[in-house]
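Summary for the funding panel

The consortium committed to producing paired sequence-structure records for every protein in the target list. Below we show the first two records in order, beginning with the earlier of the two.
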Amino acid sequence: MKVKQNLNRLIIAKVVEIIFVCAFLFLSFSLRETFINIQTLAFVPDKDELNYTSLSVNNPLNYVMYPMKDSDALAKVSDTTLTVNNESLTKENYSLLLVVSKNSSLDYNCLNIAIDNQIYALNTLPQKEDNNSFYFVLASDSIVGSQKEYKIKIWMDESTGNEMQNKKIILSYDLVKSVSI
């Protein structure tokens, strides 16, 4: 009889131990998830990391460049439409950039650009550079709760010589932005 009571106590102790371990694991897991969620909510990004404005590029440059007159370029070259969009009520300042890779074989000094049908020599636009690229500022403005479109055309100036034949240009568009308070 005593052996039977000891065996029953041992079984009850093991069942209680199993229940305790399961409860501990369950509570640990749920507390860990709660802690992770609190950490995620507690992270507030710096105002410079907040981005409310985006850039979309429609009908990118896709043709063989050859020297042409400005009037012909305005009539024949297809527009690349750059759309700057901000759907929030937070004002952001931005600069729209044309990025020309230094791996391009075509010299950017022989290019003209039309921004909303205003013609410029590309090398007259404000410019910065780093080890890999040249950056030309196409527009600087601010935007809040709206979108702005820019029509861009790029072509070779009519005075460009034959030395630029069969050359390639590697370019892209970028948007640099900052939040206004």
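The next record, for a separate protein in the list, is shown here:
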Amino acid sequence: MNKNYLEHKNKAVETDNNFSHVMAITLDPRTYYQGIIRCITSREGSLGIKGYVDRSELHQITSNSLEHFTIGEKLNIKNEDEIIKELTKEGEDFIGLEDPDIWIDEATNLMHVYFTVPLKDKHTITHLGHAVGENLDSLHMTMPVLLAGENNRAKEVSIAPLNKKGFRYNLIESSDRRGDFRYSTVRVAIAEDMAGPWEYGETVFHPAEHNISWIGGHASPGPLFPETFINVGEGKRLGVINGREADQKIGGEIKYGTFSVGLFIYDYELGKIDWVMPEPFIQDSEAKIITFASQFVETGSGEGILYAHVDDSFVRAYTLEADKIKSLLPK
């Protein structure tokens, strides 16, 4: 794999005495020096085998630069207990908020935070939760923007630009079971109001329907790059897609493949994915099984930093240059 990126030597977020695993960084785009990270409080099972359970907390992070962030206090979201209680059915176990994403409404300057609300029974269902406030210290949880149903699950949102019709074809990670395997798919979430409720749209990428080995089992949408970084045409954005190789059933267990970072082109006017990279873009030098991107920061003309977590254990930063990326895109 050609390295069209620069992997930073040091870790952007490291574990500390409180947490042995940290992941899923998201930053406030008004400053980029504060944000949220998911911290794993306990883990049952093996990371590479289906069935492991992580219990999580969301914590604030702060920094004086974009190179290294410090983990702070647990994120305090008002009304969280009441909403979680209302969502949790008998027999379900809430295992902690996961995978945050921050979006700022430019019209109001309000902060919207989206996150996974996982409820575990025989299987884990995932609602796409939501909170809103002026900043990280004033968040108030609402009902999820997307509720899981019998055939619907939602997590890992990618916020799309407003289209010409006045709404957004956002992207989410959803799922679909086929035979012995459950696939993670990319699906449209139709948002007329960013505070919800949203509607489920079409599945726009299903790993089982594409012959792309690095993303043959699981697909999850990542951040979309701003047009000022790379312009791929009117009504379209280049972005990051996280992909995992197809699962394998070995000795009665489902074994996971490697998660890597790739690129895709999204038509946000039509809610369609035009292209997915045939080979992975980033695999961390220390990764044994997971490299998963969650945040991009444009730092200058044609340059930016992408943050990804490695083996659900720490966060790494990678410098990206638009000119190098352009050579990887379809003509």
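Regarding this second record: Residues 5-327 form a domain with the Tachylectin-2; Chain A fold (CATH 2.115.10.20). The two ends are 20 Å apart (CA to CA).
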